[in-house]
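Recap slide: Cytochrome c oxidase subunit 9, mitochondrial, sequence and predicted structure.
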Amino acid sequence: MPVGAIPAITGKLRKRLILDLSVALGGGTALGYAYWYGVHVPSVKRRDTFYEKLQSDKQ
């Protein structure tokens, strides 16, 4: 290698792309699960108990 030459950057873009995709998919999945089990499931459970109580009061 001649003096002062810049070494070739090989494979950096591919490694960065794999890292970015992994972080994006992993983070998206984690946030999806957090929403589903932290917000959606409890609200559905509250709704279902409300309608069950309403139905039992009706009878």
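The CA atoms of residues 51 and 57 lie 10 Å apart.
The radius of gyration is 26 Å.
(End of recap.)
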